[in-house]
Amino acid sequence: NAGVTQTPKFQVLKTGQSMTLQCAQDMNHNSMYWYRQDPGMGLRLIYYSASEGTTDKGEVPNGYNVSRLNKREFSLRLESAAPSQTSVYFCASMIPDTNTLQETQYFGPGTRLLVL
Amino acid sequence: AQTVTQSQPEMSVQEAETVTLSCTYDTSESDYYLFWYKQPPSRQMILVIRQEAYKQQNATENRFSVNFQKAAKSFSLKISDSQLGDAAMYFCDRETSGSRLTFGEGTQLTVNP
Predict the structure, then answer these.
(1) Which one of A45, A90, A104 has the shortest CB-CB distance to B47?
(2) Mean pLDDT score of chain B, rounded to an integer?
(3) Geometric angle at alpha carbon A87, from A51 and A13, rounded to 5°
(4) Is the CB of residue B113 less than 8 Å from the CB of residue B86?
């Protein structure tokens, strides 16, 4: 059980280049999320997927697209990277505890992206 | 806008002493969850403690406890007997209906030996 995994761990892009950040979870969770973390801004939601086949915009979706390929995988794509997208990106998944109805989020290790 | 605010960008504490990190939030919902997360230098997010808004009793996890004041929309984290390993960035998080998560700006905690 690897939890939430993200690839790559670090990436440098030039302005205008495209790339896809991969996220996968092996916990059979329904909900998955993409966040970016910037100093002083906390974690800001980019997109989320409440279940397989559905995606919704979060707080800062501009410049990003997502794909919920299946229940395990949720990818984030930058079509034309900009320096303002330099950040650390976190993927997370969540499932409610059916006994207590509490919900726990599990985060991946993060991807550091530098756009020059 | 429904926000989460951590007014202390940085805090420090002596090893073995107690520190309290503050968090206030805004929501129009009556039922929601609150969380504190720890982010060490490895950048992994680690769940520290959770609180359901409908529960009046403050959550406790070993050396970590919260002071939840629902009317004041306040959710502070108390760390007792601070250890060097507690040094990290701490994020307050509010979850509302539809599994929408909103995080605060973070508080960087330094533990001095």
Answers:
(1) A104
(2) 88
(3) 100
(4) no
